[in-house]
Amino acid sequence: MIKFKILNKDPNTQARCGILKTSHHEIKTPNFMPVATQGSVKTLSPADLKKIGVEIIVTNTYHLMLRPTSSLIKKMGGLHKFMGWDKAILTDSGGFQAYSLSKLIKTNDHGVEFSSHLDGSRHFLSPEIVVDIQKELGSDIAMVLDFFTSYPSQFMDARIAVERTVNWAKRSLGVKKNLIYSA
After folding, report:
1. Which helix (H) or strand (E) holds 19?
2. I need a labelling partner for 158 at 20 to 30 A (CA). Which of 10, 33, 75, 85 fits?
């Protein structure tokens, strides 16, 4: 369960600071969140990140499912052990990468079928599959699969994208609730 507690609020703006609590970590906000797309922050070690006060990093489901794969990361003890990182990890769903990196993409209400940017192999992501992958990775904060449209977009295209993303979020929440109750 993720909780957020506001510690201070600016009386003149909407700015605030607080504590974001996950099941295993506390993150002071605001906090710089470096990108470790493929499981590492380029040029910085976990020790370097801790020295500068980083409390959370972001990785990417799309990239990690393709290489080295979520099942391998799970066998190695999860993303925290794989990366040598004992603080919080947020995993992005990979929806944008499936959209932007694939030459051949097919999207419908069930999910996204795409070609790997690595070898052209075909893959399918649904909201349920993304939740399962992020569970295998052992992420602290998992983002739902989202649907993208090109820019600029027509009003109806944008509306379809938002409605599909909301429906996918509801499906993801249903899977997450089942995981919580079956654990």
Report:
1. strand 16-21
2. 33
